[in-house]
Design brief:
385 residues, 19 strands, 5-stranded antiparallel beta sheet, alpha+beta
Length: 385
């Protein structure tokens, strides 16, 4: 009898709990949508806990304020505030237009004036001028300091690149500093195409034939360009190659890995670690170039370029010559939002094949010389001097 009463009581309590849960679900339900799942209920509860305060602020302003909210400004400021609350120096928010510019920067062609920008001692300088592009035709030179773009000061390489790029056929005004003089130039943007890899033959002593490969950045297709350059030099029967990644700011991580794979025997290229501590290892496939080579680096060699240089150094594929690299050993992901905007944030850290961290440390070259003398030293080494 006592057992029967227990069963009845348990059934009654279970029924009450079920009724309460159903009632709770209806309270949190959406009009006309029926009952929400427990997962959805938890989602809306978390949403209220995280952002309910800001909703209430906006509701009060909407109901009582003499002034109305500019929705575009609100969305931009809130999105930027979320990113700025991260202790992440590489995190950024992009509105729709800025994100489209970011995508173009890593495509095989883009609309702009045909320059690359670097930062040295807090100054933004023109690092490279593309042949026959608007910049060269307008008289821009390597080493010109960029003061402003369209009348607005620029604060970083990304800022300058974003402002200089734009729709083909539109004008951009650059204020430059050259030899102590201010120079203002108006240029018309156009579709610009430039290989990310250059190659040529070099004259060397001791009867040796050398090659030179310059990797400017790592974008879509860079590894294919590098493979073609490598094959062209091998057909020319070179005995050694100088690979130059000085002033290479990086780019797409996977392209850096693929490029390293072209020059390394089987072994590790890169170790990645995410926020859960889970590691992933990228490895070389064992097929690689059959010639001696060296890699030139400097303080502007960063990100994917450090992946390439670090993998070569640790696997003893070739000597690194020049100056300590920049030290950007983290990887960013870009997530696109429904309105066309996007945000970038750091999701992984990467390490050299032997586990050595790069971030904020950089890579020390095997042979330290001033950046401007690295090419001469590389040629001497490959010539047997």
């Amino acid at each position: 009898m006592r057992d029967e009463r227990k069963k009845i009581m348990v059934s009654f309590l279970l029924g009450m709990v079920t009724a309460l849960m159903l009632g709770f679900a209806f309270v949190y339900g959406i009009r006309g949508a029926g009952v929400l799942s427990a997962g959805k209920i938890n989602y809306y509860k978390d949403l209220d806990a995280q952002y309910g305060k800001y909703y209430k602020m906006q509701k009060s302003i909407r109901d009582k304020s003499l002034y109305s909210i500019d929705k575009k400004k609100r969305d931009r400021y809130l999105s930027q505030a979320v990113i700025q609350s991260l202790p992440d120096p590489y995190a950024a928010y992009y509105n729709k237009e800025d994100y489209e510019k970011l995508e173009r920067r890593y495509s095989e062609s883009y609309s702009g004036i045909g320059i690359s920008v670097e930062e040295k001692k807090g100054k933004l300088l023109i690092a490279h001028v593309i042949k026959d592009g608007p910049a060269e035709q307008g008289g821009l030179r390597k080493g010109d300091r960029i003061l402003s773009v369209d009348g607005k000061k620029v604060h970083s390489v990304d800022d300058a690149s974003d402002r200089i790029g734009g729709e083909a056929g539109t004008d951009v005004v650059l204020k430059l500093k050259r030899g102590g003089q201010d120079v203002t130039v108006t240029l018309t943007r156009q579709e610009v195409e430039e290989d990310s890899v250059d190659s040529k033959f070099l004259k060397a002593e001791n009867g040796k034939k050398l090659g030179y490969i310059r990797i400017r950045h790592f974008r879509e297709g860079t590894s294919e360009e590098l493979k073609e350059a490598e094959e062209r030099l091998m057909d020319g029967r070179v005995t050694g190659v100088v690979i130059d990644v000085r002033d290479n700011p990086g780019g797409i991580k996977d392209e850096g890995v693929k490029c390293a794979d072209l020059f390394l025997p089987s072994g590790k290229i890169l170790i990645e670690k995410n926020n859960q501590g889970k590691k992933k290892v990228a490895r070389a496939d064992g097929q690689c170039a059959d010639f001696e080579y060296v890699v030139l680096v400097n303080g502007n060699t960063a990100s994917a370029a450090e992946i390439f240089a670090g993998a070569v150094q640790v696997n003893r594929g070739g000597k690194l010559i020049g100056e300590k690299t920049y030290g950007k050993g983290v990887i960013q992901s870009v997530e696109k939002l429904e309105d066309g905007s996007a945000f970038k944030f750091t999701t992984e850290e990467y390490f050299l094949p032997d586990g050595t961290p790069i971030n904020k440390k950089g890579i020390q070259p095997d042979i330290r010389v001033a950046s401007g003398k690295a090419l001469t030293r590389g040629i001497q080494m490959l010539s047997g001097k």
